[in-house]
């Protein structure tokens, strides 16, 4: 990627709520042989600005009604573009990251499921390439106890095999919400799994943005 391309991408990542940097970057992609991703960005931005008229459809999503011609065409074209190697190669700049699932919003990846092994080593690169706003560590699930949904630090000693499935990297753990004392261990305790998952995501995002120099 040229220096101007890197600067344009950085603007997208630093201001994820703003469409303008995304559309400018789409123009740059067109000029540098990446038309599939450029069109993908423009179509998703346009869909976000002009949502489906069916009020039951979640924001920024296409409906499944067979008579909604605009949504049907949008879905079909999105599927065509997503299958093109030009798009998948461009999104990760030729890198094969330890990502097992993604969600696009306005042309860029904003949600991702990442293999937990080595997340802290690759997080800086992940967050330097895409404006991630939500992260899940694949295969990890908070433990449901009498006190709530619990996360443990990977470096805690004496965790059972079941509890290890609820462990997260210590660097991420330390960026999550304030812990409660649970017995002789300090664990992160939340009322529900959903709140525990949200806290883990926030910790991952904070770590990734810091690793990418985004503050």
How does this model look, in words?
With 215 residues, the chain is α/β, with parallel strands linked by helices. It folds into two domains: 1-91, no CATH class; 98-215, no CATH class. 46% of the residues lie in helices and 18% in strands. It has nine helices and eight strands. The protein has helices at residues 3-14, 20-31, 35-49, 69-82, 85-91, 119-129, 161-164, 170-173, 193-211; strands spanning 99-105, 108-114, 134-137, 143-145, 148-153, 167-168, 180-182, 185-190. The strands form two sheets. Strands 4, 5, 6, 7 and 8 form a five-stranded mixed β-sheet that branches. Strand 7 (180-182) and strand 8 (185-190) form a beta hairpin. Helix 3 (35-49) crosses helix 5 (85-91) and helix 6 (119-129) crosses helix 9. The chain is globular, with a radius of gyration of 20 Å.
Task: Summarize the model shown.
The chain is α/β, with parallel strands linked by helices and 215 residues long.
């Amino acid at each position: 990627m040229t220096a101007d391309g890197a600067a344009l991408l950085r603007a997208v990542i630093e201001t994820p709520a703003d469409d303008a940097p995304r559309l400018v970057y789409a123009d740059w992609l067109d000029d540098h042989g990446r038309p599939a991703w450029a069109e993908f960005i423009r179509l998703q931005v346009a869909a976000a600005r002009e949502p489906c008229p069916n009020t039951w459809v979640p924001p920024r999503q296409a409906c499944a009604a067979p008579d909604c011609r605009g949504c049907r065409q949008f879905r079909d074209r999105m599927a065509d573009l997503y299958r093109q190697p030009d798009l998948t190669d461009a999104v990760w700049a030729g890198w094969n990251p330890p990502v097992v699932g993604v969600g696009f919003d306005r042309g860029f990846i904003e949600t991702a499921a990442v293999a937990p092994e080595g997340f802290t080593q690759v997080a800086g690169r992940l967050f330097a390439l895409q404006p991630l706003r939500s992260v899940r560590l694949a295969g990890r699930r908070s433990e449901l106890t009498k006190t709530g949904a619990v996360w443990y630090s990977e470096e805690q000693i004496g965790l059972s095999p079941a509890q290890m499935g609820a462990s997260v990297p210590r660097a991420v753990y330390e960026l999550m919400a304030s812990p409660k004392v649970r017995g002789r261990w300090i664990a992160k305790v939340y009322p529900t799994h959903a709140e525990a998952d949200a806290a883990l995501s926030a910790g991952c995002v904070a770590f990734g943005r810091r690793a990418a120099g985004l503050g």
